[in-house]
């Protein structure tokens, strides 16, 4: 089973990398960019076929390692 | 002093740390590989040195913080054992949950590598007893992610409980935004945990311990630790 874990910075956490990208997009003349926040995407292949088990494993992975929940949120998606 | 220096792949300041400890305490520290599940018996100081463990992959210190040896360090710290984390070591301690908060990318995005001044906030701790409260010391920093941040309540508690031991300042001890090199909350350079036995700091005191380094201001930290441990023994 394929899955995706997306990790993003919590609201209010300063994201200087996102700011730099935002500035670069503006200097490239890309119109209408209000703001940019940078995050991370993990594409994961799971051995389990059971949906509930897969979700539990992904949640454990995110809590234990993929995200630092002091500053980051995460979202788990099963892609089938 | 029976110090144990943790060694992770990608760490590169462990020898500087070993040299400083040997020089000041007169005892040879043990080098402990990250895959170990226990610390050498009789260890009275664990040092998590600086460098770039696991190439800073994922987040600085994130992977090292989950190494087998860190379980032993957590047990040791829970029993009151002294732990010192410098630079990447500070990041590892935060990621492992031994210290609160997180080290974010420097506010102005630059890797900062030069000497800074630190104000020692109090002298009644094992990590600062080699200095006077309010003393200004000069030590180097070398980091891209040293901007200490935590939620408001944590910062309030750190300040209220006197757990900020080192702060970035000017040469004459003024703490202001102009000398807050990386944008850290309250100019925080080093903090201790709630029990006061785990210190994390971004600057490198181990790199200012000999005349040939141009400054010996870092000696006080190690001399104070040695003194504290001698007294306890």
TrEMBL record, chain A:
GO CC annotation: cytoplasm
Catalyses which reaction(s): N(2)-formyl-N(1)-(5-phospho-beta-D-ribosyl)glycinamide + L-glutamine + ATP + H2O = 2-formamido-N(1)-(5-O-phospho-beta-D-ribosyl)acetamidine + L-glutamate + ADP + phosphate + H(+)
InterPro entries the UniProt entry points to: PurS (IPR003850), PurS-like_sf (IPR036604)
Enzyme Commission no: 6.3.5.3
Cellular location(s): Cytoplasm
MF term (GO), any: phosphoribosylformylglycinamidine synthase activity
One Pfam family named in its UniProt record: PurS
Highest taxon of the lineage: Bacteria
UniProt keyword annotations, A-Z: ATP-binding, Cytoplasm, Ligase, Nucleotide-binding, Purine biosynthesis
Pathway info: Purine metabolism; IMP biosynthesis via de novo pathway; 5-amino-1-(5-phospho-D-ribosyl)imidazole from N(2)-formyl-N(1)-(5-phospho-D-ribosyl)glycinamide: step 1/2
Gene Ontology annotations of biological process type: 'de novo' IMP biosynthetic process
Keyword Mitochondrion (UniProt): no
Main location: cytoplasm
Family: Belongs to the PurS family.
Subunit structure: Part of the FGAM synthase complex composed of 1 PurL, 1 PurQ and 2 PurS subunits.
Role this protein plays: Part of the phosphoribosylformylglycinamidine synthase complex involved in the purines biosynthetic pathway. Catalyzes the ATP-dependent conversion of formylglycinamide ribonucleotide (FGAR) and glutamine to yield formylglycinamidine ribonucleotide (FGAM) and glutamate. The FGAM synthase complex is composed of three subunits. PurQ produces an ammonia molecule by converting glutamine to glutamate. PurL transfers the ammonia molecule to FGAR to form FGAM in an ATP-dependent manner.
HAMAP family xrefs: PurS
Descriptive protein name: Phosphoribosylformylglycinamidine synthase subunit PurS
From TrEMBL, chain B:
Pfam families, alphabetized: GATase_5
Coiled coil region boundaries: none
Catalyzed reactions per annotation: N(2)-formyl-N(1)-(5-phospho-beta-D-ribosyl)glycinamide + L-glutamine + ATP + H2O = 2-formamido-N(1)-(5-O-phospho-beta-D-ribosyl)acetamidine + L-glutamate + ADP + phosphate + H(+); L-glutamine + H2O = L-glutamate + NH4(+)
Cellular component GO terms, alphabetical: cytoplasm
Record GO terms (molecular function): ATP binding; glutaminase activity; phosphoribosylformylglycinamidine synthase activity
BP GO annotations: 'de novo' IMP biosynthetic process
Family annotation (InterPro entries): Class_I_gatase-like (IPR029062), PRibForGlyAmidine_synth_PurQ (IPR010075)
Entry EC number(s): 6.3.5.3, 3.5.1.2
Protein name: Phosphoribosylformylglycinamidine synthase subunit PurQ
Subunit structure comment from the entry: Part of the FGAM synthase complex composed of 1 PurL, 1 PurQ and 2 PurS subunits.
SUPFAM superfamilies: Class I glutamine amidotransferase-like
Keywords, in A-Z order: ATP-binding, Cytoplasm, Glutamine amidotransferase, Hydrolase, Ligase, Nucleotide-binding, Purine biosynthesis
Keyword flag Translocase: no
Compartment(s) of residence: Cytoplasm
Catalytic residues (UniProt): 87 (nucleophile), 204, 206
Alphabetical list of PANTHER family matching this protein: PHOSPHORIBOSYLFORMYLGLYCINAMIDINE SYNTHASE SUBUNIT PURQ
Principal subcellular localisation of the protein: cytoplasm
């Amino acid at each position: 089973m394929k899955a995706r874990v997306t990790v993003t910075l919590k609201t209010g956490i300063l994201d200087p990398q996102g700011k730099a990208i935002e500035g670069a997009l503006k200097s490239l003349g890309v119109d209408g960019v209000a703001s940019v926040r940078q995050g991370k995407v993990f594409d994961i292949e799971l051995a389990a076929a059971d949906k509930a088990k897969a979700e539990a494993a992904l949640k454990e992975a995110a809590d234990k390692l993929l995200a630092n929940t002091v500053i980051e949120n995460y979202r788990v998606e099963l892609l089938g | 002093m029976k110090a144990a220096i943790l060694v992770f792949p990608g760490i590169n300041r462990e020898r500087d740390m070993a040299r400083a400890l040997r020089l000041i305490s007169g005892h040879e520290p043990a080098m402990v590989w990250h895959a170990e599940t226990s610390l050498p018996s009789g260890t009275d100081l664990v040092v998590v040195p600086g460098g770039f463990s696991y190439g800073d992959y994922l987040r600085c210190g994130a992977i090292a913080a989950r190494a087998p040896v860190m379980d032993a360090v957590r047990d040791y710290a829970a029993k009151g054992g002294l732990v010192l984390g410098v630079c990447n070591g500070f990041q590892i301690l935060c990621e492992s949950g031994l210290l609160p908060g997180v080290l974010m990318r420097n506010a102005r995005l630059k890797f900062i590598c030069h000497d800074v001044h630190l104000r020692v906030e109090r002298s009644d701790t094992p990590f600062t007893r080699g200095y006077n409260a309010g003393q200004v010391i000069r030590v180097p920093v070398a980091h891209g992610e040293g901007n200490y941040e935590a939620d408001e309540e944590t910062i309030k508690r750190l300040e209220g409980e006197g757990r900020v031991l080192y702060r970035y300042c000017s040469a004459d001890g003024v703490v202001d935004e102009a000398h807050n090199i990386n944008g850290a909350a309250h100019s925080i350079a080093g903090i201790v945990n709630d029990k006061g036995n785990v210190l994390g700091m971004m600057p490198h005191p181990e790199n200012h311990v000999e005349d040939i380094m141009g400054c010996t201001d870092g000696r006080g930290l190690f001399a104070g630790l040695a003194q504290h441990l001698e007294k306890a023994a």
